[in-house]
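Hello forum,

I keep getting stuck at the same step: I have a sequence, I want structure tokens, and every attempt I make locally crashes halfway through. Rather than fight my setup again tonight, could one of you with a working pipeline run this one for me? It's a single chain of 441 residues.
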Amino acid sequence: MSSSPLKRSLLLAYAAGSIGSGLFSTVPGLLLLFYLTDTLGVAASLAGLAILVPRIWDIVTDPLVGAWSDRTRSRWGRRRPFLLAGALLLPPGFVALFSAPVGDPTVSFAWVLGAFVWATGAFTLFQIPYASMPAEMTADYHERTRVVAHRMAFLPIGILAGGALAPMIIKANSGGPAGYRVMAVTLAIIAAVAMLVAFFGTRDAPQHPAPVEATALREQIRVALSHRPYRRLLVSFAVQNVGIGAILAAVPYFCHYTLRGGEEAVTILFVSLVGPAIVAMPVWMAVSRRFGKRVGYLLSVVMFAAFALSLLLAAPGRLALVAAQVGLLGVGFAGLQVFPFAMLPDLVDEDAAVSGQRREGIFTGLWFVGEKGGLTLGAWFVSQVLAATGFVERRAGELVTQPEAALVGVIVATAVVPAACALLSLPLLFHHVESARNRAT
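Reply #2:
Ran it on my machine without issues. Output:
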């Protein structure tokens, strides 16, 4: 592991993988629930299960894959074989996810459920080892922030493709099932290329050898969760992701039923989110260098909460105002992505200093349990709010009138839930101790 600056070519190749990650993290979270209820005619309560069950499976496999990558020995190192496997398996699963048969909602539900289990498993194979790599690539406190910042600068490209390009492709292909299928094929190709670039481009990345003696998975989990700063950071991050999952799942409903727009409104809002997020990355890096990661993280959480709550002002005819609010929300969102991932490798180092073992995989696996679990609970929560408030599902082309209670539920899920989750995470962050920062200074 090196403490000298890493080559820009290596950073860019590594960061390219986050385009694929951003695509798969965004599209199901944004469109899958809406696809089920407003294209396939699946009831909201049942549609929520199609999202929840595969994610539970995903949560179970995250620490397993993390521990597996920790002890893998190959000529490609510990992590890179998993990058290749995920890059090859995820695209066909993603295409299948949005190619469900239309007609019987029960059959559509079962198809999406099975395809999502496949896709989430393939994504785990790539994402957990991929996110473990920064802790191995450099030992320098600020260089790790640089590695993560490069990755997060590319992540919005995937988010933009998922959140802005996807609705445009769907509309350009007449919407409905055919539009979703063309969208899935197009984005699957982009994701595959990006993930393969990460695999081939990181062949010279510094990495640690697998340990000679492997610790049992249960013991690794126990040790990781007994690390108090890590546990606090993990819980706060998970709570924030409940809010992010809710706002992602609610945005299509927000655009269609609150703003009275369509796919164009979804695209505009995602451009408004991602553009400022990209610009904000170097700003948050400067804040980190001047005040530390924790302070920057706290500021970004407060900013995210404030502008999420401001969406309560949304109404038809106010798309320009809402886009500006979402742009400022995007600045806070950028910090929520940079800082926790930059702080995670420092905590891995603390564990290694005490235990003498490098357990990036299990720490990262549990980390994504928090992220995916939070995103899943947020989306599931939206489905239950819609079901409880009487939301009427429909097949593509049908016209329905939603009850007033369902319209209120959409705006609450979009504005109040994300703000509340962000604010609930603050107490844990206030108590987080940046011992790595203290050592560096």
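The radius of gyration is 21 Å. If your local run keeps crashing, start a new thread with the error log.
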